[in-house]
Amino acid sequence: QVQLVESGGGLVQAGGSLRLSCAASGRTLSIYIMAWFRQAPGKEREFVGGISRNADGVYYADSVKGRFTISRDNAKNTGYLQMISLRPEDTAVYYCAAREGSTIVVSRFLYGYWGQGTQVTVSS
Question: Residue range 14-30: average pLDDT?
Fold first, then answer.
């Protein structure tokens, strides 16, 4: 099975940018659909976006479309979430997730592998 570790979180002012990374180990990342989720205090974990195994398909939640970009480098066994124009409402713990299969899905219950999360805080 694959292990996932996120990095790159931090504190940023509104309008700023951050890039999160998700490093995979144990198995090659290329066989998994990858996704990013986030969870704000008191809220459910929500889908941010996902990317197909060979990066030819990407899907975003409406709340981040045009501001966030998901990518992956299978040779480096790493996925990325580039975030620009950050808003205070983007404050959350961000998780990367992986699932076996061929389709990007928005339900967190269909992802079997998770990282530990990285905190992103956007100040106003």
Answer: 95
CA 81/CA 94 separation, integer angstroms: 10
Confidence check: pLDDT of 59 > 90: yes
- Residue 107, H or E segment: none
What is the distance between the alpha carbons of residues 64 and 61, in angstroms, rounded to a whole number?
A: 6
Give 31's DSSP letter.
G
Query: Which long-range CB contacts under 8 A does 99-103 form with residues at least 24 apart?
Result: 99/32, 99/33, 99/35, 100/31, 100/32, 100/33, 101/33, 102/33, 102/52, 102/53, 103/33
pLDDT for 101 beyond 90:
no
Phi (first) and psi of residue 61, to 5 degrees: -70, 150
**Distance between alpha carbon 111 and the CA centroid of its chain, in Å?**
12
Rounded Cα distance, 49 and 59, in Å: 5
Residue among 109, 108, 118 nearest 47 (CA)? 108
C-alpha count within 13 angstroms, C-beta hemisphere, residue 25: 4
